[in-house]
Design goal:
Blueprint lengths: L20 H4 L2 H8 L4 E4 L17 E3 L2 E4 L5 H12 L3 H4 L10 H15 L6 H12 L8 H7 L2 H9 L26
Parallel strand pairs: 1-3
Antiparallel strand pairs: 2-3
Amino acid sequence: MHSETIRHTESSDPASTVLRVGQIGFHAPAALLAHFDLQLQRVALGEPIPGSFWGDEEAGIIGSTVHARDDTPVHSLLHEAGHLIMLSPERRLDVHTDATDSIEEEDATCYLQIVLADQLPGVGRERLMTDMDAWGYSFRLGSTRAWFERDAGNARQWLIDRRLLTADGQWLPPGTDSVGGVSCRAD
């Protein structure tokens, strides 16, 4: 080994710096998912995560449940939740591991996970975009932020059209309108 060679350890891997669900706890993500009639199921450390497309510590989805461990990256939990949020309850019934083959839905999921990060204390969109870059998300403009700010208009509009975001791109909790936040549901 040459003296100039740098040995990469796990701590020098940018992906090792991403925020994990265990660092923020399960309560806030579970409460956020409940707004969309989704459940968050905690999986024991070391156990395989049911419904995980990528395996390892990545979140999984089955039906209306997102599965995660303490070591699951927050961005992964929000991404998989985003897939389920965009589906009707009927379509959710058929979901196991893979939610979509649609490029439009995948782009909208990436956009939504960034917006939803603002709803989790200690996370926020800035941290989530940094974590997405560290994890290796790949966008045409080179970074998550560049994509989100300058190249994601179609994804944003897709979410607005489905009443998941307001016209100005803010999270629209289910049962509220985009004008005054008044419930649209008839009780």
